[in-house]
Amino acid sequence: MTDEVLPPAGEEPHPAITELLANVMIDEATLSYFRSLFKESDRGAVLISATRLEEKLELLHRTHITHQVADPKKVLEELFRPYAPLSSFSAKIQLAYAYGLIDAEDYADLNIIRKIRNDAAHTSVEFSFEPPEIAQKITHLKAPGRMIPMLTMMSDLFAEQELAELKDPKVAQAHPKLYYILACLALETRIVTHTAGLGTAQAESE
Fold first, then answer.
1. CA–CA separation, 82 vs 88, rounded Å?
2. CB distance 48 to 186 below 8 Å
3. Backbone phi, then psi, for 138, in 5-degree steps?
4. According to the 3-state scheme, what is the secondary structure of the chain?
5. Angle formed by the axes of helices 89-98 and 104-122, to 10°?
6. Dihedrals φ, ψ of 8, to 5°?
7. Can you tell me the mean pLDDT for 125-130?
8. Residue with the larger pLDDT of the pair 121 and 167
9. Single pTM value for the model
10. Could you read off the pLDDT of 167-184 as tens digits, one per residue?
11. CA 176, CA 180: separation in Å to the nearest integer?
12. For residue 129, how far is the Cα from the chain centroid?
């Protein structure tokens, strides 16, 4: 892929990436949100996206619990209040995996996102995706690979060589912000799908 793919903070994403997001089967508000991450600083993109993933995980838990107990209101209040069992991003990830709400790959990726979020939140200097310790974490994300089937259906957007490069894990080193945002997109899509599936299963059982 060319160097144009990853724009500086404050600029629009490359047209091919905008077109990619436009072809993903999710609502316009979600697409607009992911496009906006390209305009954020690296720190901003991480803090915003991690918070949103935590919110999606919370909704997954709430949906699951609502379908498990007769009167979920009090249970939910106790679980999600400050310092309660499901009050942290880490706890939401751990318990979602323990209860089978997410798979092992999502679990691993979400923990990487959480660690990158902590790096961005706690550094006293400007945060960037470029330092080796951050870039290495990004290369371990598996979620972007789930976007590849979508990309292969869009040969008019990417040349054959570019698609091959996207399948190469080294793309994370060349375009870490792009890779990180694609990871968040893939993870959010999977979490939202799991949440919707819980509702569908409950409706079918009634």
1. 9
2. no
3. -65, -35
4. CCHHHCCCCCCCCCHHHHHHHHHCCCCHHHHHHHHHHCCCCHHHHHHHHHHHHHHHHHHHHHHHHHCCCCCHHHHHHHHHCCCCCCCCHHHHHHHHHHCCCCCHHHHHHHHHHHHHHHHHHHCCCCCCCCCHHHHHHHHCCCHHHHHHHHHHCCCCCCCHHHHHHHHCCCHHHHCHHHHHHHHHHHHHHHHHHHHHHHHHHHHHHC
5. 170
6. -65, 160
7. 94
8. 121
9. 0.77
10. 666 666 778 888 898 899
11. 6
12. 16
The two tokens of residue 106 are 């999502």
- Rounded to a whole number of angstroms, the distance between the first and last alpha carbons of the chain is 50
For each of the domains in the chain, give its residue range(s) and CATH number, in order of start: 3-201 (1.20.120.330)
Cα 204 to the chain's mean position, in Å? Answer: 29
What is the Cα gyration radius of the chain?
18
